[in-house]
């Protein structure tokens, strides 16, 4: 542990002489990492990822196992240390040592450094990437205690800005920047990320998605025959090949659909009615209907739900292509618009809470691996949030969980008999920390859904 002798310069307290300095005690500012470690004990995410990797190192020279390297990196990401350079500063942190099954003695059993982390990350192979992608889906299936009647999935893409010379970092006209363009497929209710796929920066929102969905639907059907699967997405995913994959896999879907001359003509009468209603009442007017429409690239007509909305600024028509038979307004108000909270909010959590867009490696495949590490950290934090049901943190974002649970001070003492972790007596979330640790260590399976 690095020792500091310099005092802080303070002059605001006049009641008594005020002295503030860095302590020589074995302290950590991330005591909540032990909750992340306890969630791992339940979910086995890091252990499963380690099993997907092949260790080609010389056994006699290995100081850090693959399991420890993955665990250390994932715990650091979950705690807000998304850069591998942070490993250098956390090697002797007692809480991270405990989480990685090391005895937290100062200066002993140091964790992996940044060079070790970087060499390890850059050894990943395509075969291992496929194994890890399969592992995340299998873990999702195992989380069900019994087969559900329905699985609702959301799909969305997001921009990850790039600033160097990363492979396939390309300029995207819509975002006006060089980016990667990952796609996320998550379970709607819990936010569980089944698929987090990295793509080139100039990708269309639906590019490469058909193959991923074909494989995912097959995997779900194999494990859960007869389950009803529904997929939601915005207009970028209403490509003919994606619709065809859904229909051949007997999957229900609802995608936004871009306007065109034919659809504008079909909705014109509805917009006229909405306009009259708006001018009569002075309030926003919304009217719904549906038609069967065949685009030039479709072999047969499909149902298109039309929303004619008239606002102060004028017409705002919207379209949804779907094979669901739900009433048009109910489909939009009670189903499709929920996609924002389910999918877009998850992306915000990944970007803001996990920093999953920190993809600064030169190799494309290594950046995909980094996405998987962020995916693992996110799942562990979802496990903590699930264990917080009934508390103030039951619906907390992952950023909030970090601020309230993980960023907690603790003193670590090692004796012959035990390792003692002492948290602050005035910790404002002491009850939640106690309850979450009790639930995570009880052996009761976490049910996300």
The CATH topology of the largest domain is given as: Transposase Inhibitor Protein From Tn5, Chain A, domain 1
The CATH class label of the largest domain is: Alpha Beta
How many domains make up the 3D coordinates?
Answer: 2
Unreliable parts: 1-5
Radius of gyration over C-alpha positions, nearest whole angstrom: 25 Å
Strand content: 15-25%
Percent helix among the residues? 25-40%
Global outline: globular
What can be said about the biggest beta sheet? 9 strands, mixed
Please tell me the CATH architecture of the largest domain by its name: Alpha-Beta Complex
Q: How far apart are the first and last residues' alpha carbons, in Å?
A: 42 Å
How many β-strand stretches? Answer: 15
Describe the protein in words.
There is one protein chain. The chain is of the alpha+beta class and 449 residues long. The protein has two domains: 27-123 and 374-441, no CATH class; 126-360, Transposase Inhibitor Protein From Tn5, Chain A, domain 1 (Alpha-Beta Complex), CATH 3.90.350. 40% of the residues lie in helices and 17% in strands. The chain contains 15 helices and 15 strands. The protein has helices at 33-43, 45-51, 66-78, 87-90, 94-99, 114-121, 126-142, 209-223, 240-248, 261-281, 328-334, 339-353, 364-387, 398-406, 430-441, and strands spanning 27-28, 150-157, 160-161, 170-172, 177-180, 183-187, 193-197, 228-233, 252-256, 285-293, 302-311, 314-315, 318-322, 410-414, 419-423. Strands 2, 6, 7, 8, 9, 10, 11, 12 and 13 form a nine-stranded mixed β-sheet that branches. Strands 1-14-15 form a three-stranded antiparallel β-sheet, with no helix packed on it. A three-stranded antiparallel β-sheet has the order 3-5-4, with no helix packed on it. Strand 11 and strand 12 form a beta hairpin.
